[in-house]
Amino acid sequence: MYIFSETVEFFQFIGVGVILAFIFDFFRAYRRYKKVNSKIIVIQDILYFLIAWVVLIVSILKLLDGNIRLYLILGILLGILLYISALSSYTIKLFIYIFKIIHKFIDYVLLPIEFQKAVFRGIYIFLMKIIKKCCKMFINMILNICKLIKKIMPKFSKVKKNRFSFKFSYGKNKKQKR
Hints:
There is one protein chain. The radius of gyration is 42 Å and the shape is rod-shaped. The protein has a domain at 2-86. Helix 1 (2-33) packs antiparallel against helix 2 and helix 1 crosses helix 3. The chain is built from 5 helices and no strands. It has helices at residues 2-33, 38-64, 70-86, 88-164, 174-177. By secondary structure, it is mainly alpha-helical.
């Protein structure tokens, strides 16, 4: 009974190795589909490491109750080798095909949104040009009115001083003092 359970656990960790290689093929296919720079590759590698770490920890805790055995590492390595030799090329092609479909779907969904943004941007630019022209015309009109008022004001100010000037005197006038 004890050997049978260890054999089952060994095959389960072969499956864990297959899962880890499958996840790694996802990242490989993405790199083939879309050319990425080295910074993105580093981020993807860190992300893969974290995902693989979580998968390993969860599988060790669930399948082996936290006990680490030598056949665990051998099972994972054997699962990775079996997957890479048998299924990796097909999986990468499948992932690339899925990425193309997703890319086309996103383009199909986002294209109308981008078109609407372009139309509204054009309308906005057109209206802003009109508003700027109107504001310039309005400011020029106000400036011209101000210039005209400045030209006319001295004439009115002289007239106003002469006609409407009042002298207030407190007490006696100068003539009255003498």
